[in-house]
Amino acid sequence: MANWIPLWLHKLGSPPTFYRFAGTLQPWAMALALLLGAIALYGGLVLAPADYQQGDAFRIIYIHVPSAWMSMFIYAVMGVASFIALVWRIKLAEVVAMESAPIGAAFTFITLVTGSLWGKPMWGTWWTWDARLTSELVLLFLFLGVIGLYHAFEDRRQGARAAAFLAIIGIINVPIVHFSVNWWNTLHQGSTVNVFGQSKISGAMLWPLLTMVLATKFYYAASLFRRVRTDLLALEGGKDWVRKIAEEEADR
Amino acid sequence: MSALQHFFAMGGYAAYVWPAYALFFIVLIADTIAPRVRRQHVLRELRARLARQQVRQGRAGSISTPTPPSP
Description:
The complex is a heterodimer of chains A (about 250) and B (about 70).
Chain A: H1 7-12, H2 15-47, H3 61-88, H4 91-123, H5 131-151, H6 156-170, H7 173-183, H8 203-235, H9 240-251
Helix pairs in contact in A: 2-8, 3-4, 3-6, 3-8, 4-5, 4-6, 4-8, 5-6, 5-7
Chain B: H1 3-9, H2 14-62
């Protein structure tokens, strides 16, 4: 291992240490996700005024947009973890990449279906081969491809490496999803929220959206920690530290 | 119309807004439950494997030399 990597980070990469670390943080992440989510839902469904054009249908934004951002964010995390897994062969990076895929697929699926439910009353159609919609659908297939390839191998670590390779190739789709509304001026609207400038949305509508974005980030952390812990137990089944946990939980 | 009825009507878009929210929660709850179920499964299997190993070791201790099959 390169010696510029600090020792604590190196230690965190060891499965038993990360198992404990994730176990400590997981309940806090989930509690924050639930708290922020509840505040965001109240703000978005009750406090925010109805849109002057879209009426109350616009309220789908509070789950559609955070889910769409998460679908890209999780893909990026999966891509980076896959790269680390392939270059440095760190077992934890493989696990993070492979356990991110189902969460990413879940958010991508939510994005597509809620978008469809929003498109029907506003555009008059459930689906159209618009650039944004099509590239998001490709993102779902990439997530499913990574999950499928991972499980197609008898040896889990071999499967993880093959799937990590696919994840890295597929990362090209993330900027395509993001810039699709600028590159091809088709049906889906451009971005409303601008991180570096003035957003084209009133503050009363914006704060619940940003709160929900935070809530979904914490949810992802909680879900990832839970999944990684489970996967580490399965992968390290023969080791003493896992045996100890199995015996402790049998007594309860 | 009461305030609550007004809220659930979603300005006539209830048929689109509520299924979207329902789906969001159903998918995320499923994502929360799945690893918990898998964890129970993994640990149960591991305990069964450890128990089998112990039985095998116990047998190996009592019978030092396995009887060779008769020709």
